[in-house]
Design a protein that fits this description.
The mean pLDDT is 86. The protein has one domain. By secondary structure, it is mainly α. It has eleven helices and no strands.
Length: 218
C-alpha cells in the first residue's frame, strides 16, 4: 500500500508541477495552453514517454529522488515579458515547495503521525524537496535555467540551448556518479527538509517501505 500511495502521490505532484507552469503561462499571455489541454490534472495531458514517465520513475526507483519531468510546451514568444517567462519556470518548483509544506503541516497532527501510512506521506514530502532542489539547478533542461534564461544575452541563450540535451545528461550523470556533487545537492535537501519540518525518521521509514515493495516487483 505504501508503494501505491507514493506512486499515486508522486504522479499527482508531477501533474501539479506541470499545471503550475501552464496556468502561469496562461495568465502571462500563452492562451494556447488551454487548447492543448494543460489546464487540467489529467496525467495523460502531461505525458512524454521519456521526460514525464521514464526518467522520473527511474530516479524514484533508483534512490528515492524526485525528478519532475517536462511535458508542457509553452509558446514563450506569446508571453508578455521576460518576467512572465521567468515566472512560468519558477511556478513548477514553487508548487513542489508548497506541497512539501502542506504535507509537513499535516504530519504535525498527532492522529496523522499514528496513521500506518504516515511514512509514505513523509517520504512524499521529502520527494517534493528533492524536486525543488534539482529543478532549481541553473542549467538546461531544469527550471532553474528557465528562470534565468530570459535575462541572459541572446547569444548566450542560443549557445546553451544548442547543447541542452547533453548538459542535462551531464548534470544527472554528475549527480549520480560524482560523490562530491551528490553530497552538495543532498546536503541542501537535508537542510530544507529540516527547515520545512518534515520528520526525517518517518521519511526514512517511508523510503525503506517503498524500496521493500519495489524489490518485490523486481
Amino acid at each position: 500500500m505504501t508503494f501505491l500511495l507514493v506512486l499515486l502521490g508522486w504522479i499527482f505532484s508531477l501533474c501539479l508541477h506541470e499545471f503550475s507552469h501552464a496556468i502561469v503561462a496562461y495568465y502571462g499571455g500563452d492562451y494556447t495552453v488551454k487548447d492543448k489541454g494543460y489546464l487540467t490534472f489529467n496525467p495523460l495531458k502531461y505525458t512524454h514517454p521519456v521526460y514525464s514517465l521514464l526518467l522520473p520513475l527511474l530516479f524514484l526507483a533508483m534512490g528515492g529522488i524526485g525528478l519532475p519531468g517536462g511535458a508542457v510546451y509553452i509558446e514563450r514568444w506569446r508571453l508578455k515579458s521576460p518576467r512572465w517567462e521567468s515566472a512560468v519556470s519558477l511556478a513548477g518548483p514553487v508548487s513542489n515547495a508548497l506541497l512539501a509544506i502542506i504535507f509537513s503541516l499535516i504530519l504535525r497532527i498527532d492522529a496523522v503521525q499514528l496513521w500506518q501510512y504516515s511514512p509514505a506521506l513523509a517520504f512524499l514530502a521529502y520527494l517534493q524537496i528533492t524536486a525543488v532542489v534539482l529543478n532549481l539547478i541553473p542549467m538546461p533542461p531544469f527550471d532553474g535555467f528557465g528562470i534565468l534564461e530570459p535575462f541572459l544575452p541572446m547569444e548566450t541563450r542560443i549557445k546553451i540551448m544548442q547543447s541542452q540535451s547533453t548538459l542535462g545528461w551531464i548534470v544527472l550523470g554528475a549527480l549520480w556518479f560524482i560523490p562530491a556533487i551528490g553530497k552538495i545537492i543532498f546536503g541542501i535537501v537535508a537542510i530544507l527538509v529540516l527547515l520545512v519540518g518534515i520528520p526525517t525518521d518517518l521519511a526514512s521509514l517511508g523510503l525503506s517501505q517503498f524500496n521493500a515493495a519495489l524489490w518485490i516487483f523486481r
